[in-house]
């Protein structure tokens, strides 16, 4: 199995930046894909960004394009989400997710993922 541990959330003013990290441990496969999702109370979990196993392809929600960047370091088994120009509407609990054998998976959909982190709170003040 795979365990995911997140860090980097916190409080930030509008226009500021945060970098979230998600470290994977346990059984990992070379073909696993990873993604970031976020959720606010009373709303469905929302796709934010995803990255393929080799890091050659990335995907972003329209709401974060140009502001957020997803990357990964396979040697460290870690995926990152660099968040710039943060807005109050970015406030949410952010979750990282992973799925092995990810070729052909639709990484923009939460149901495609097998493993999830505990979530980390990001709060952007106006």
Give the H and E element order: EEEEEEEEEEE
DSSP strand count? 11
The number of helical segments is 0
| Computed CA radius of gyration, to the nearest angstrom | 14 Å
Can you characterise this structure?
A hairpin with a 6-residue loop joins strand 4 and strand 5. The protein is globular, with a radius of gyration of 14 Å. The model has no long low-confidence stretch (mean pLDDT 93). Strands 2, 4, 5, 6, 9, 10 and 11 form a seven-stranded mixed beta sheet that branches. Strands 1-3-8-7 form a four-stranded antiparallel beta sheet, with no helix packed on it. It contains no helices and eleven strands. The protein is an all-beta fold and 126 residues long. It has strands spanning 2-7, 10-13, 18-26, 33-39, 46-51, 58-60, 68-73, 78-83, 92-99, 115-116, 120-125.
Short account of what is shown:
By secondary structure, this protein is mainly β. It has strands at residues 2-7, 10-13, 18-26, 33-39, 46-51, 58-60, 68-73, 78-83, 92-99, 115-116, 120-125. The strands form two sheets. Strands 2, 4, 5, 6, 9, 10 and 11 form a seven-stranded mixed beta sheet that branches. A four-stranded antiparallel beta sheet has the order 1-3-8-7, with no helix packed on it.
How is the secondary structure organized here?
Elements: E1 2-7, E2 10-13, E3 18-26, E4 33-39, E5 46-51, E6 58-60, E7 68-73, E8 78-83, E9 92-99, E10 115-116, E11 120-125
Parallel strand pairs: 2-11
Antiparallel strand pairs: 1-3, 3-8, 4-5, 4-9, 5-6, 7-8, 9-10, 9-11
């Amino acid at each position: 199995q795979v365990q995911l541990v997140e860090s980097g959330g916190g409080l930030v003013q509008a226009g500021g930046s945060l970098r979230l990290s998600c470290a994977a441990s346990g059984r990992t496969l070379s073909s696993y894909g990873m993604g970031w999702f976020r959720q606010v109370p009373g709303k469905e979990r929302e796709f934010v960004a995803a990255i393929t196993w080799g890091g050659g392809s990335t995907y972003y929600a329209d709401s974060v394009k140009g502001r957020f960047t997803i990357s990964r370091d396979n040697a460290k088994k870690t995926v990152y989400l660099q968040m710039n120009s943060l807005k109050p509407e970015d406030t949410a609990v952010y979750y990282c997710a992973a799925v092995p054998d990810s070729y052909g998976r639709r990484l923009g959909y939460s149901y495609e993922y097998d493993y999830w982190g505990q979530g980390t709170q990001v709060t952007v003040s106006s």
